[in-house]
Amino acid sequence: MYCADIAVLGVGPAGIAAALALSQSGLNVCLIGETVGEGPKVGEFLPASILRLFRTLGLDGLEDVLSVENFLHCNAKKSAWGSEIWTYHDSLRDPEGGGWHILRHSFEKELLALAGKRGIPFHEGRLLEVSDNGAQFRVRAQGKQGPFEIQSPRLIDATGRKAWLVRRVASAPRKRNTQMAVVGWLNDPHHTIERVTQVKSVAHGWWYTAPLPGQQRVVAFHGLPDSVSHYFRRPDLFLKQAQRDSLSDGAALIGPLYSCDASVALSPNIAGKRWLAVGDAALSFDPLSSQGLHFAFYSAIKARDAICKSQQTDDEGEAYKAMQLYCAQISDVFAANQQTRALFYNQERRYRDSPYWSEQRRNF
Fold first, then answer.
1. How buried is 339 (Cβ within 10 angstroms: 0-12 exposed, 13-18 middle, 19+ buried)?
2. 38 alpha carbon, distance to own chain's centre
3. pLDDT at position 363, please?
4. How close are the terminal C-alpha atoms of the chain, in Å?
5. Which residue in 171, 233, 294, 346 is deepest, having the highest Cβ count within 10 Å?
6. Number of C-beta neighbours around residue 157 at 10 A
7. What number of CA atoms fall less than 13 Å from residue 239's CA on the CB side?
8. Long-range Cβ pairs for the range 327-334 (8 Å, 24+)
9. Which residues in the chain land under pLDDT 50?
10. CB within 8 A of 324, min separation 6: which ones?
11. What is 49-96 written as a DSSP string?
């Protein structure tokens, strides 16, 4: 059995960032989870503001994390939202820059390699069960060589929307809207040198597309389950509609379409006395915000602060305050995001009677 001061469940960006932050503070931390595969993965935008969080982790820039062939600068954003007229927002107007589009699976692999270089153990395996005797958690997982166990007094749930630990020790995340996405990755040898992100609202949802490294393009449709499943079952229709809505020039799919939950979800309990959740396990964003990766690193750093403060005191009341402060910080992020969502979704007035748009305005 392996023992650690803190065990991080999940090896996505939030989990790895939490492990990096905690190891900076001298804590014995380990990672447990399953690695990503070779194929493309959703969540490919890094806002320029994330560099401030990188520096907190001792990273000078994106090149410290990701090889240059795995990211592209985002030069501008183009949208037809609430109107058929396209508007153009050059990244030169943003004081922090336009950010980057990345190959997400490469980003996670290189982040995990960075954690290894910093001496953070990684135990690969599928999480099975967790028990708590009041002083120690015992996590059981299934690895390639068989089952194994990790013992730790503290746990961090970084398992994404699955919220594996949260569901077992507290309660399931609560969805604030209904929305799904169907995503396709295209071979795009002619992708524009402008490197422009495009968003377009339509009667039954909205489209998104962006160029990716390696002459690829990602195209996604966001809507209610019926609309998404319709496109998912008909890749030919998905491509035709994307082309009709000016989101694709007819490029071919690299592989099968992928569908996923794209709702806003907040866990009612994101921290306990000896555990907390980060990233999507705590708060899942609407993809329209493009803030998922930024929040992954933000929540990881704030989690490190809360854990360190709670460990520096023998006063249970002060330790409790540290964890509650973390909960308040996440709650503030959620409230600000909901305000922004209300602003954007209320701008689309053409389809007020559409089931999709009515659903998105229901829980602001």
1. exposed
2. 18
3. 73
4. 46
5. 294
6. 33
7. 18
8. 327/270, 327/271, 329/302, 330/270, 330/282, 330/283, 330/299, 330/302, 333/283, 333/295, 333/298, 334/266, 334/283
9. none
10. 271
11. THHHHHHHTT--SGGGTS-GGGEEE--EEEEE-SSSS-EEEEGGGSTT
Question: How far, in Å, CA of 213 to CA of 70, rounded?
Answer: 6
Name 308's Cβ contacts closer than 8 Å, sequence gap at least 6: 25, 27
Task: Report the length, in residues, of the chain.
Answer: 364
Record the tokens describing residue 67, joined without a space.
Answer: 């090889």
pLDDT, position 189: 73
Please give the pLDDT value at position 247: 85
Are 71 and 100 within 8 A, CB to CB? yes
Measured distance CA(45)–CA(36) in Å, rounded: 17
**Cβ atoms < 10 Å from Cβ of 146:** 7
Nearest Cα to Cα of residue 211 among 65, 48, 81, 99: 99
The Cα 219–Cα 209 span in angstroms is 4
- Quote the tokens at residue 331: 């709650």
Rg of the chain in Å (alpha carbons) = 21
Map tokens 């491509």 to a residue: 239
Residue 57, both tokens: 């982790």
Q: Which residue has the tokens 């960032």?
A: 17
Interstrand relation of 76-80 and 196-202 (parallel, antiparallel or unpaired): parallel
pLDDT for 37 equals 76
